[in-house]
Write a structure and sequence with these properties.
Number of domains: 2
Number of strands: 14
Bound molecules: flavin-adenine dinucleotide
CATH architecture of the largest domain: 3-Layer(bba) Sandwich
Oligomer: single chain
Shape: elongated
CATH superfamily of the largest domain: FAD/NAD(P)-binding domain
Radius of gyration: 26 Å
CATH topology of the largest domain: FAD/NAD(P)-binding domain
Strand content: 15-25%
Distance between the termini: 51 Å
């Protein structure tokens, strides 16, 4: 199969925890994005799970939706003292016990988070960004660069304007190449990539036509010049 241009829109795979309750509640009580789901759970008792410095960043964003927050690390986090101080100053308790499971509310939502030390907390939603990887290895197969950006470990690198990847003629749209992972952003980046891809195709076609006509014109000129010379 041949193609002059390729647009990759192959998305990412969220590697959701195997602990009981995570897969069942993914997208319905467990959310990864405050911009997608913050409104739905505004002012509700929420938990935020992250292991690293991203925990403080997520708390900073999600406290805009609810002030009833608990920060979780699912085990010893190694959080720096200034991160701990910041959470304390924001009034967000930090719980570093390992999570054993999540319990649903019987209606598809989250009710409770249970810990290995036997403790539990009632929460109506958990914000959690699982590790991600590319859903398809097509970009790398074609020689494209994949890079870590912030909390996202593997995004296809592309020109921010044209969405052309590091491989000429290969473009990327949607989650596969963006930290802004949402339906509207994916569609918008697809439209952007398609426009620049079309721009490149039209340009190539026009170049080929011009080169073809130019060749014919110069052959005609050569022929005329030749007869004059004779
Ligand atoms: C739980 C959850 C809730 C979300 N809620 C919201 C929300 O409320 N609002 C919002 O805006 N966004 C939300 N999002 C994000 C949104 O779903 C994504 O940003 C969007 O779907 C990205 O679109 P995409 O086309 O880039 O990738 P995807 O939707 O992942 O589509 C990629 C497609 O490519 C296919 N594919 C991959 N490799 C190949 C291959 N080699 N050959 C053929 N097909 C292939 C995949 O099977 C898939 O169908 C949510 C995401 C999750 C996980």
């Amino acid at each position: 199969m041949g193609a002059r241009k390729i647009l990759l829109a192959t998305g990412v795979r969220d590697e959701v925890s195997e602990k009981p309750g995570f897969r069942e509640l993914w997208g319905r009580g467990i959310y990864h994005c405050p911009y997608c789901h913050g409104w739905e759970v505004r002012d509700r008792p929420l938990a935020i799970l992250a292991k690293t410095e991203h925990l403080v960043m997520q708390v900073t964003l999600i406290r805009n939706w609810s002030r009833d927050l608990v920060a979780l690390t699912d085990g010893e986090s190694g959080l720096e003292p200034d991160a701990r101080d910041r959470l304390a100053a924001l009034g967000v308790p930090l719980k570093e016990e390992k999570i054993s499971s999540l319990e649903g509310d019987g209606d598809g939502g989250l009710r409770r988070i249970l810990f290995e030390d036997g403790s539990e907390i009632e929460r109506e939603a958990l914000f959690y960004g699982p590790p991600q990887r590319q859903r398809s290895d097509l970009a790398e197969f074609l020689g494209g660069e994949v890079e870590a950006v912030g909390p996202f470990p593997a995004l296809v690198k592309s020109d921010p304007t044209t969405r052309e990847t590091t491989v000429r003629g290969v473009y990327v749209a949607g989650d596969a190449g963006s930290i802004m992972q949402g339906a509207i952003m994916a569609a918008a980046s697809g439209a952007t990539a398609a426009a620049f891809l079309n721009h490149a195709l039209c340009g190539e076609d026009a170049e080929a036509t011009v080169a073809g006509n130019g060749g014919a014109a110069s052959r005609a000129a050569d022929a005329t010049g030749g007869s004059e010379a004779v």
